[in-house]
Design brief:
Rossmann fold, binds adenosine-5'-triphosphate, 28% strand, alpha/beta, nucleotide-binding, Alpha-Beta Plaits, six-stranded mixed beta sheet, single chain
């Protein structure tokens, strides 16, 4: 079943020109000169129920605007958006029952009240039956380990504690889709890990569809097998994280541990990354060398004790993509490549 359908979606904002100085402020009010900015430009995608999708793009690409249209906060300029058969901005109450929303930079909790009071209010507003509320609360309290501070006022919580509580609250009414805008922003490594693990469990066990925006690519790698990438409002990639890695991440690294230090080695088709005597690392291009040939060459001449292979990491791949997107000469080419992959993905679905 399809959870989210977005078709030819457009959101335009009017940006008013502001003149400086006192007379300038008056002129700004009177003339109302404006330009129109397309924050979301003809975007289409579908997300199936139970999927976990990362929505990615450089600053100002239109990610938050998309999430706001999906959650019914903003009305699209044109195009279609449907969430489990409702139109978010037209049926806001019905839509609210189906979705949970977490904004990393904004709290939905009552600042001066104990956390539990915010949860009780949520129960009242969403008319959550007692037994369902209890089950969901117990699940979140156990999995997110929030028991120790559930009776503290929100303002006394650390950022990591608050985020765990925000996520718990978003799930109390059993939403079918969970939207998260930068859920791990500003958190330490341990807090990020526990939130990622929890989201994976919610997606796997409760089959909650997840769509998240993030600048932390580890969030994507650990939670979302699929990513949608936007740039300047346009969709530039929709597909598996692994596909993008194999399209753009051509560089691989091979680390070899020899029985004894073989000295300097000339391995055709590779570059030496580091040389620690017995342990050396080489990088090579998928297209110019094969792992088997490299290993055969090495083991013919030396005694190899251990070998490990690394693909390009996701940070590197996204950096490459963003650089290509910034380059006007490259953009047309790149868009063709990535949208070709998009068409393949759509054809598969
Ligand atoms: N209410 C608004 N009025 C006018 N312009 C807006 C409004 N909201 C967003 N924009 C503009 O729309 C574009 C997309 O903004 P959006 O917040 O969706 O980007 P984003 O991808 O979420 O960025 P970031 O990663 O920096 O959070 C930006 O150029 C922004 O200035």
């Amino acid at each position: 079943m399809t959870a989210i359908v977005v078709k030819d979606l457009v959101k335009e904002f009017r940006q008013y020109r502001r003149f400086s100085g006192f007379f300038g402020s008056i002129k700004s009010l009177v003339t109302r000169e404006h330009t129109v900015l397309r924050a979301v430009d003809n975007v289409s995608f579908k997300i199936e129920k139970g999927e976990a999708v990362g929505y990615l793009g450089p600053n100002g690409a239109g990610k938050s605007t998309m999430i706001k249209m999906l959650t019914g906060i903003l009305v699209p300029t044109s195009g279609h958006v449907r969430l489990m058969n409702t139109i978010p901005h037209k049926s806001r109450r019905e839509n609210a029952n189906k979705i949970g929303v977490v904004f990393g930079q904004r709290s939905q909790l009552w600042w001066d009240l104990p956390v539990m009071d915010s949860f009780e209010l949520h129960k009242y507003v969403y008319k959550i039956p007692g037994s369902k509320f209890k089950d969901n609360l117990n699940f979140c309290v156990d999995m997110l380990r929030i028991a120790d501070f559930i009776n503290k006022p929100v303002r006394q919580l650390s950022l990591g504690q608050r985020m765990r509580v925000e996520i718990a609250m978003a799930l109390l009414h059993d939403p079918e889709i969970l939207f998260l805008d930068e859920p791990t922003i500003g958190l330490d490594v341990m807090a990020k890990d526990s939130i990622r693990e929890f989201l994976r469990t919610v997606n796997r066990e409760k089959k909650v569809t997840i769509m998240l925006t993030t600048h932390d690519l580890k969030d994507i790698e650990e939670i979302c097998p699929r990513m949608v990438i936007v740039n300047n409002g346009h969709l530039v990639y929709d597909g598996a994280v692994t596909n993008l890695k194999s399209q753009l991440g051509n560089q691989r690294k091979i680390t070899v541990e020899f029985k004894s230090n073989p000295g300097q080695i000339n391995l055709p088709g590779t570059h030496l990354v580091f040389d620690e005597g017995r342990r050396k690392q080489f990088s090579f291009d998928r297209g110019t060398a094969s792992v088997f040939d490299l290993l055969a060459t090495l083991s013919n001449q030396y005694t190899v004790e251990d070998v490990s292979l690394e693909d390009a990491d996701i940070e590197e791949v996204i950096r490459t993509l963003y650089k290509q997107l910034e380059d006007p000469l490259n953009t047309a080419n790149n868009l063709q490549n990535v949208t070709k992959s998009l068409s393949e993905q759509v054809a598969v679905r």
